[in-house]
TrEMBL record:
<protein>
    <submittedName>
        <fullName>Auxilin-like protein</fullName>
    </submittedName>
</protein>
Amino acid sequence: HTGVYVKKETPVKFLTDPQEVRSTLRPADVLVYGWIGRKHACVDLIGVSPLVGLMTGDFIVGQATLKAASSKIAKHEKSYSDNQHAFIPFSFDTFGFLAPDAVDILKIVQRVMHNNIVSHRFMKLVFKRISFVI
């Protein structure tokens, strides 16, 4: 029986600078245990206004969201990878556009739910545990 186990706003020890004894990067918004190849996945929730950068050129749906996701990947992915964790940006804009990584997360959650949910009560529990999806 497979499940999705998550913890919100999780301090991640490898993001702490041993010299300063404080985190140089903020904690993971959501830590999903054993998500990708048995690696824990740190999910960073990134809400973006689609109007960001509107004055700099032609408006392209999702451009601000994709740019925010790629910036976060460039900033964090190596640190997570070096410490055997996966980094997943869950990027979305206020108009409802979802970055591809966010869509992938939702598809995996949907698959887990379809394979394992037998009651309405259990479905509510899953959505409570992964409330970032709602």
